[in-house]
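In this supplementary section we document a worked example of the pipeline. Step one takes a protein sequence of length 242 as its only input; no multiple sequence alignment statistics are reported here. Step two produces a three-dimensional model, which step three serialises into structure tokens for compact storage. The input and output of this example are shown verbatim.
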Amino acid sequence: MNTKILENLWLSKNEISIYLFLLNNWNTNISEISKKTWINRPSIYSTIPHMIESGLLIEVLKWKRKHYSAQNPKILKTYLEKIEQDFDFVYTELWDTYKKRKKRPILQSLEWKKWIKYIFADIVKTLKKWDVYHRYSSRKSIDKRWYLPENYKKIRDEKLLERFVITNDFLDKNLNLQKIRKESVIIPKKYDLFEDDILKIIYKNKVAIIDYNTDQGFIIENPIFANFERKLFKLLFQFLKK
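The serialised model returned by step three reads:
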């Protein structure tokens, strides 16, 4: 018999040996159990009360001496049911912990030009056809074309991606951006020059930030964080639109 299965029911090796022996040799005393199972008597004395309490054994008086007999193996099914109940409880705790972990942002730190290209590749890869992304473009020049992957514009246009952009007057005029996005608004110079050479893009459950000053980029993947950033973008967009 594969006793490993019984061990999975939280039975100790002593309990398994005693139970299997008594299943074949009913009404047996402790002396005989010890002799046949090679378990010392003190261990048997400490194990049997627990087995009686759990329903595995019953105690029988025979000629004023205590004998023990194994109960119906159906009792072991209750052990399995107990494990299932305990597992359901543990599973609930594990799932709650996992859900909390999912709420933690996943942060990717990317350096050098090739990894900034990766950010733009990830945008068109992540977004589905007709999806929308939101973009802050705070730049003071237009010589940043090197960061775009070769097929970026092709994929973007094939997917018919819609863009809402907050930018400055310089970029809006020089890049003719109206042809490649749905709508844009400008931060007036009286508020801020908005020429920090920083780009932020909010797409799906991600927020990408690119610092052209240091050729560094970051992708933060988290639905709560992305939705929060999207709300702020929309508020500012509507304000500037008015």
